């Protein structure tokens, strides 16, 4: 949308000029009329900044701790030519800011980078360190932002390649480079790194493009009509000329999206899925898929339009209520490790060495977390994935505790059998709350307990919510 | 297209040689017959465009089946079959597919096609247009063996590797010869590196031009190596008789190591055509 506006603003004066020419001497369109294209120069910093804004480097907001002092150039330490960029990464307690980072912006209206396939540069550091780099961020839209959060620098000069997921999108890009560096990888020790020969290149040696949404997983979700859910876990993997894969985060606008059922759900160019209606003919599901440059992305979202009231404890679709923790760590009897993790862009709860574990939401240790009043709810939705072999004799004993830790506390239990579970596959359960034996009231549920007695030691859980159909 | 380019280059060599010879003649009046010996290979003697879907043409191709001796001498991991899962002609291409599966005690299956006993030729241009798989442990190859292998054994029969690729190096292929005194780890080999392309993203033509006392190695229209009797550390066994062709996709083994957790299965080696030319 923005592109169009900018283009028209340039086209209109041109059209005006041409009109005058045509009226005055009745000639046809000139072959020189070239509509709204932008410079194609790929160079960013060779021995000097190339076509960047006067400030050259635009820092992240110092209010966030960004240190604006550590940025400069170096005429001694270069890979090639006479100068490199030198960045001094501050220690976390530096009074001028505990990390450094920012962007390089084109000084004009942007560049046409559609003829390139990668951002490349040479870099080295005073010690092995991990930094974040990217491009496509202009601090305005960040529409085509690409990032690598774990680029490992060594003490020798090395060439780094950051692939462009779909160069055809970059017809007017101002965000030419981004970096951010702290001392997380150096145990708080400050260090320096150098960047040289920073440019966009057409390499031709990148292969095996693999876009992914939702971390490449096929996920399912229920959502209410007129609600929206963003697609997350958007990445693009390419194989580098040295045979190694690199995976970058890719902004939603690189992807083209498709819905299998427009009567149920639509998705916009920012990857926001909106549930539009209940569907037709009893089909209330839509499968959302995506592609980059005609290459299908791994992963999909099957969304089921529902009309339910929800109190969500853990889900990427519904707004979650605050909880105290996803693992109460009851010592000394509990062996269970783990908690909430991001698995390829999908937030899940992952437990290992499980004998029993609790999710707590009652205000433990004086926290502000309130217990859940599930009086108007009818079901608990929960999904389990057993990350090991499942035996028929395995079980998950679930308990819900009302008024947990209080003298009038009660609890109800429900057993899931090994025969209902699958090894390394998600299985969904919709359990009537009336099936939790002993749960005679549920106006202040504060704890959800999972007991396996180590028969199932490795268990993942996702999409935990109470609901009632309207 | 390819041949025309080659011919143009060969003609320019001839012209240059002629000019040089002429100059030499003017200056020294030496024997004008001592010009460079160049052979043109313009006559198609065998071609398979893989136009008919199904199993490969049995009049041209046969198969090695199984695991050979110690993974075909190279600690390769695959079991070769002639099943359509592993080898089929489809959409104008020969497809050799490596699959990760338990099969007859092996962890992978794939295919190896030979023209042994069906098409054998001494000298000529041998070329195949191919797109290769990628990832560590993938070992696609297009190569020739002396047709007398069953009589005098390897490496005395000679082996000409037109193209080998290790999947962990998607921009590098190599060509080699093996013979008595220069086999296996001592083969005479040279790599070719793509600077703006890859073996797995585009089709490329891999070929040799083989004549008396020389083998020229090509990728597309680039001549990247010539091997002559002066280059080998043993007897030159490539002027003795006909050779047959082999196309295979090995998994694991000594060339690129074994697959790792990032190696994708199944994967396919695509062969658009195989063409052999002989001298006029």
Automatic annotation (TrEMBL), chain A:
Gene3D superfamilies, per the entry: 2.60.40.1080, Galactose-binding lectin
Name of the featured protein: Carbohydrate-binding protein
Highest taxon in the source lineage: Bacteria
Automatic annotation (TrEMBL), chain B:
Keyword Signal listed: yes
PROSITE patterns: GH16_2
Domain of life: Bacteria
Coiled-coil segments: none
The keyword Chaperone is annotated on this UniProt entry: no
Family annotation (Pfam families): Glyco_hydro_16
Gene3D superfamilies in the cross-refs: 2.60.120.200
Domain GH16, chain residue ranges per copy: 39-280
Transmembrane regions listed in the UniProt entry: none
Alphabetical UniProt keywords: Hydrolase, Signal
SUPFAM superfamilies in UniProt: Concanavalin A-like lectins/glucanases (SSF49899)
Signal peptide start-end: 1-21
Molecular-function annotations in GO: hydrolase activity
Family statement drawn from the similarity comment of this UniProt entry: Belongs to the glycosyl hydrolase 16 family.
This protein's name: Glycoside hydrolase family 16 protein
């Amino acid at each position: 949308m923005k592109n169009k506006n900018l283009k028209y603003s340039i086209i209109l004066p041109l059209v005006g000029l041409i009109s005058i020419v045509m009226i005055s001497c009745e000639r046809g369109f000139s072959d020189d009329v070239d509509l709204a294209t932008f410079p194609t120069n790929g160079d960013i910093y060779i021995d000097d900044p190339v076509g960047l804004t006067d400030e050259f480097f635009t820092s992240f907001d110092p209010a966030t701790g960004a240190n604006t002092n550590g940025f400069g150039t170096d005429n001694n330490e270069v890979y090639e030519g006479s100068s490199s960029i030198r960045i001094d990464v501050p220690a976390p307690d530096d009074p001028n800011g505990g990390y450094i980072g920012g962007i390089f912006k084109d000084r004009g209206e942007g560049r046409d980078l559609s003829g390139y396939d990668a951002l490349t540069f040479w870099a080295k550091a005073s010690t092995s360190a991990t930094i974040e780099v990217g491009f496509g961020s202009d601090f305005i839209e960040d529409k085509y932002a690409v990032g690598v959060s774990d680029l490992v620098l060594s003490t020798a000069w090395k060439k780094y390649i950051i692939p462009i997921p779909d160069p055809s999108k970059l017809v007017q890009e101002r965000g030419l480079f981004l970096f951010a560096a702290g001392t997380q990888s150096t145990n708080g020790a400050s260090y320096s790194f150098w960047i040289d020969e920073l440019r966009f290149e057409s390499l031709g040696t990148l292969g095996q493009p693999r876009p992914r949404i939702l971390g490449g997983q096929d996920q399912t979700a229920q959502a209410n009509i007129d609600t929206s859910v963003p697609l997350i876990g958007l990445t693009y993997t390419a194989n580098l000329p040295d045979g190694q894969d690199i995976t970058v985060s890719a902004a939603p606008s690189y992807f083209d999206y498709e819905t299998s059922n427009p009567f149920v759900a639509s998705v916009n160019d920012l990857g926001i899925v909106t549930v539009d209606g209940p569907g037709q003919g009893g089909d209330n599901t839509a499968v959302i898929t995506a592609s980059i440059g005609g290459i299908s992305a791994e992963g999909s979202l099957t969304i089921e339009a529902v009309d339910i009231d929800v109190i969500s404890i853990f889900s990427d679709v519904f707004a979650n209520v605050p909880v105290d923790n996803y693992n109460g760590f009851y010592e000394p009897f509990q062996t269970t490790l783990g908690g909430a993790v991001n698995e390829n862009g999908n937030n899940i709860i992952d437990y290992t060495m499980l004998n029993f574990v609790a999710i707590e939401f009652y205000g433990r240790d004086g926290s502000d977390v309130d217990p859940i009043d599930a009086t108007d709810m009818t079901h608990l939705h929960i999904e389990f994935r057993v990350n090991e072999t499942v035996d028929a004799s395995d079980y998950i004993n679930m308990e819900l505790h009302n008024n947990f830790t209080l003298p009038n506390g009660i609890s109800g239990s429900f057993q899931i059998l090994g025969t209902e579970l699958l090894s390394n596959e998600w299985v969904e359960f919709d359990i009537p709350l009336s099936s939790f034996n002993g749960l005679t009231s549920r106006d202040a549920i504060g704890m959800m307990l999972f007991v396996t007695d180590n028969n199932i030691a490795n268990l993942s859980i996702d999409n935990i919510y109470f609901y009632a159909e309207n | 297209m390819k041949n025309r380019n080659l011919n143009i280059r060969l003609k320019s060599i001839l012209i240059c040689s002629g000019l040089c010879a002429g100059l030499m003649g003017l200056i020294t009046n030496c024997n004008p017959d001592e010009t460079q010996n160049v052979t043109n290979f313009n006559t198609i003697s065998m071609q398979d465009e893989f136009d008919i879907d199904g199993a490969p043409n049995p009049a041209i191709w046969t198969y090695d089946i199984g695991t050979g001796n110690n993974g075909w001498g190279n600690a390769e991991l695959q079991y070769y079959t002639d099943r359509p899962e592993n080898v089929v002609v489809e959409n104008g291409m020969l497809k050799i597919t490596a699959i990760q599966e338990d099969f007859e005690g092996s962890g992978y299956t794939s295919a190896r096609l030979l023209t042994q006993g069906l098409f054998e030729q001494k000298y000529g241009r041998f070329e195949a247009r191919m797109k290769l798989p990628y990832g560590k442990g993938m070992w696609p190859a297009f190569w020739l063996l002396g047709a007398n292998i069953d009589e005098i054994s390897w490496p005395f029969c000679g082996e000409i590797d037109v193209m080998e690729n290790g999947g962990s190096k998607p921009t590098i292929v190599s060509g080699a010869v093996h013979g008595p005194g220069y086999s296996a780890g001592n083969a005479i080999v040279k790599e070719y590196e793509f600077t703006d392309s890859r073996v797995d993203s585009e089709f490329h033509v891999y070929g040799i031009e083989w004549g008396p006392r020389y083998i020229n190695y090509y990728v597309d229209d680039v001549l990247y190596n010539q091997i002559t009797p002066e280059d080998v550390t043993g007897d030159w066994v490539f002027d003795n008789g006909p050779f047959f062709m082999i196309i295979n996709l090995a998994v694991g083994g000594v060339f690129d190591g074994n697959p790792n957790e990032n190696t994708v299965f199944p994967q396919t080696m695509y062969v658009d055509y195989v063409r052999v030319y002989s001298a006029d």
